[in-house]
Structure prediction request, 618 residues.
Amino acid sequence: MKPEQAMRIYLAECSVHAAVLDEGLVDAKQLMLLSNGTHLDKKLLRVLDQLAYRFTKLQDSIGEKVLPLLLELTQESISSGATFAEKLNKLEHIGAIPSTNEWKKFRVARNAVAHEFPDDPELRISTINRFLVGAIKLSELYQHVIQYVAEHFPELAIAHRTSVSRAVEAHENGKVLRRIKHLSDGAKTHQGFRRYFANTSWMFAEQIMRMVAGLLVGIWVARYLGPAQFGVFSYAIAFTALFSSIAKLGLDSIIVRDLVRDPSQRDLYIGTAFWLKVSGAIVMLAVIALTTQLTSNDPTTELYILIIASGFIFQSFEVVDFYFQSKALSKFVSICKLTQLLLSSVLKIYFVLTGAGLFWFVVVSVVDQTTLAASLYIAYRYQKLGSFFRHFDLITAKKLLKNSWPLMLSGLVIIIYQRIDQIMIKEMLGEKEVGLYSAAVRLSEVWYFIPMIITNSLFPAIINAKQISEEFYYGRLQNLYTLMVWLAIGIALPMTFLSDWLVTLLYGEAYRAGGQVLMIYIWAAVFVFFGCAWSQWMLIENRTKTPTFFHINTMLWNVILNLFLIPKFGIIGAALSALISASIGHTLLPLFIRSQRIALKMFLYSFIPIYLIKRQPK
Prediction:
């Protein structure tokens, strides 16, 4: 049999295996979707067995038949006694395969399912994901080989039926509707879907309660204090917030990511992060104490700032929250935060009814932190996980700080961007204007919990999607981005037209001037919502330094614009500065960084309704 005839037969054989492999991967992705502890039911086991068989057949056919024959057809000079590794190097050299190292990894993927799957859920999901990644890479390598054959031997070209072409055929045969119904029915009973839906529901419920309490109790407190005293209170919170990134150290998402990737190191990560945060909070207090001596604030305002800042020591217990996030168990965190909210609301109502001074409302902020810290620790011990206090590793701490310092710097810049306007308003206009501006900003920022909840809840799922395939990963990201943008638009539109009426209704006639601020500031939500999802992509891609560049530029634009617009337009100028600087950060700056142009593409795609998006940016 001639080599050309043999190659056609071999490629046809491989295409059968590859087509079934691709179909199995589609089924496996759907079964594994949003699952961090998949139950290995019979259906998934059958799919994995099918994948393992086709993976083995495809790898053997390519390695034993296609690749050696391809060397013969290309007439590449290679000794008759050459090892398979030498043949692979030659194939990589001529461009027939993408990488020799990639082929070597297939053995690891093959071994991942050579035996029974582990009983441990975390190890099981890691094993399955490792195999799925290998299967995807093998399918991609085969497509690369087909493309090479088509370019160099057009007469031997054979079409590889991808999952896309099969989807088109299915649509033509009327199978799509049945498939959609199957997926819909499966979602209702899918363990991962139910778990993540419940996780998100608890966080939404808690944040909705917090929003309601903020509107009822928080606004009542603002009306009680009046614009001037409320301005002092808001200024003290804003000043403290400028230094909060020192206490947080940028560890939040880093710890969640590492706990998802390696749950066996739970105590080490949580304990190390806890003591790092305690140290950071102490450093933050020292920095604030020194900085307040350089300001023109009166002693009472300085006292308020230090009282609020002291609460960050207790915020170190939020490492427990990171553990629950990694396990999609936000129910426990939500209960803790609802407990904190209840006590805080009761105290504030009591102080309003008894005519208490501003000092007592400042003290409540520390009570909030201590209550939440105690609740989180109790919830953690309720899981019978033991204590994490004795766990600290210097090497791990250095590794965490090496990864997190760009996020800490980025967090500092974000806080400056979000709060510097209030600081500058006080210096340029006065405390009353800070109160008016803060009232409008709070009505805008009360919605910011929505993107934070969605992105934090789906963060483990996005990581798992990347382990399955890049196409699946970016498709999920695009859908998330689009959802974020349209949620923000849906909030901003009605708030724009109701701003004056809403501010006056909630805060009273004394705050009427804040309505125009709300009308402008609310549109910054579009960039904030998208930015929450975008930052998760940056973290997964380990591009933790790039967001810092964007945030620094956005912050600088905000400060510069404030210097010009606040003296000219007052608090409305500050709102304009915030909106313009946010838009620059998400539209103009990405043009100058090649790796970020995909973010700009996806952001622009997000303004197209989901049902109109026919392709994802590559």
